[in-house]
Design a protein that fits this description.
The chain is mostly beta strands and 171 residues long. It has no helices and 17 strands. It is rod-shaped.
């Protein structure tokens, strides 16, 4: 990153790129027009690595959208939401620099995910598979479902318990 200031390093003395100065990243040159140079010039330059972010989302969406790259020193934060016909999974898969990373703080209850800046030290791969929800229908004849609830859906891979009883009127 390149920042240019006049007199001192403060927000009020910061020059605006492409208005007050230009920077050519291909050759590293900074051009400040003569009319701008009326005090001490301070150039602050830092080189940061940029990493690729690959996200595979099935049955879920992320907000804000997961970026396709991240700069060293930045965090990645987003919230997952299940698409229609899915629920959020109990866990997600994240790797950074080819190593599994579990410090993302994913919460299935809220869908929140946070990859802190100090963890970003390589390419990031995020994989999330929403869990399908299947409809439940009843063809009970003279039987009925006991209790106040008749589930109309079942989540794949999770238990479904329904109590069936004889209709008291048929005894």
């Amino acid at each position: 990153s390149i920042e240019v200031y006049l007199t001192e390093i403060s927000e009020g003395s910061k020059l605006v790129r492409n208005r007050d100065y230009s920077y050519n990243s291909s050759d590293g040159s900074i051009y400040i027009p003569a009319g701008i140079v009326n005090a001490k010039v301070i150039i602050v330059a830092n080189a940061y690595k940029s990493y690729t972010v690959t996200a595979t989302l099935n049955g879920v969406t992320a907000s804000p959208a997961i970026p396709s790259s991240v700069t060293e020193g930045d965090e990645i934060s987003f919230t997952l939401s299940a698409e229609n016909g899915f629920v959020l999974p109990d866990s997600i898969s994240v790797s950074i620099g080819g190593t599994a990373y579990t410090g993302h703080g994913y919460s299935a209850a809220t869908g929140s995910v946070n990859l802190p800046a100090d963890a970003i030290n390589g390419d990031v791969v995020i994989s999330v598979d929403g869990i399908p929800v299947h409809p439940v229908t009843y063809q009970l004849g003279t039987l009925l479902v006991k209790g106040n609830t008749s589930p109309d859906s079942a989540v794949a891979g999770r238990d479904l318990i329904v109590s069936i009883a004889a209709n008291d009127a048929r005894k």
